[in-house]
Please model this.
Amino acid sequence: MSADENLRQRLSSVGRRVRQWLRVQFSPVPLLGWFLAALVAVILEMLVGTPLARLLGMSKFPVLFGFALALAQPVYIPSAIVYVLLIYVLPVALVARLSIRLGNLLAGWLMRTSPLLSVVVHLGLLYGTLHLWAGLSDYRVLVVRLMLIAIMLTLSLNVVNGYMGEFSCSHPGFMALGAYAASLFSVLFFVGNDAFGAPLLPIGLGPFLFPLGLILGGAVAALGALLVAIPSFRTRGDYLAIISLAFMFIIKSLFENLEFLGGARGLSGQPDWASLPVVFAWTILCVWTINNFVRSTVGKALNAVRDGELAADAMTVDTRRTKMVAFFFAAFWAGVAGGLFAHVLRYVNPGTFDLKKLAEVLAMVYLGGLNSVVGSIVGAVSYNLLSEALRPLELYKWIIIPLLFIMVMIFRPTGLIAFREFDVVKLLHPREGTPGHAGPGAVEPQAER
Model:
């Protein structure tokens, strides 16, 4: 055996032992424990983040876990590593490990009391952590809001490209329809401009009626999906991809030539109603709705169409209806995401919804993995954080990211997390073999008579 092979085997053995040790130490930690640990780390950063950063020689705390700062100024790499270890890694690991018993007891009590209460507590902790973390910097707020919108886009495209097995390139077009429809609703009724004149309604009503504008954007995008859904009855694969790509260019060209919507200059003046709580609430609603949709009878019919349309039709699956519902559903959520996107940036331009946006959404879907709600969430979060962390590299960023995707496709051709169901009830339960664990559907033991 050569020296290189011996070293490779030793490193592999060490890696297996480390993974096994981590699994033994942290597999009993429930989701509630991880959320509590993350909240503690964020509070710690609020209290001592700036003094610690200055003590380590940095002018301010790193906004993106030190990656952007280290790439912009490599001299700060040691300081950024120490900061992340002291603020995030060690506190999260320590709190998660120490709270195993308490976290499992609390998770078990919440599930026995009310599963809905357990969901509310977990979502409250998640939002509280995001809110506090993002509140330390306006840049973080923008990153989090765009990341949540990316989750909605990735999930909606996964319905068609993953669960139904088609290859659609029309999502930027759906997003554009939703963005312009929601923007037109806000500007026409509550803001006004030179093209539309005075607003038709008092601006004070705007935040309360804003959900109607987002629903309108989703509905317009769903109607636009007819132009893609109907040709899908007779085409599949590359042919449908070409049709959907043509749809994207048609929508982009349409808005470039509509002067009352700003034409190629774009439309601005959208009110700042897409705050972090609003975007978070719509993202949770999207995740919940799409997860239920893909686990329903229609979702199983989508899988049947993907595996074999002729066989699905022979098994009494209405393939045309299934395709129509899938395209409508995916386009609706893409339109809602587009409406939120326009109100986050407070500006919308036809050039935004081009091949680059298509490449980003497709990259997030296939990075996370097809046929997986969890995979879509992981893909969207990973891509957005990676893209922002590498922003200081400018042009080299678009060399590094494709190379990383190539590596992922070589070693994980199905994506990071593919073909995995998102079982919320199982996720909220205590971990097996820990205090308070009863398991999904378990019955509490009765007292002796």
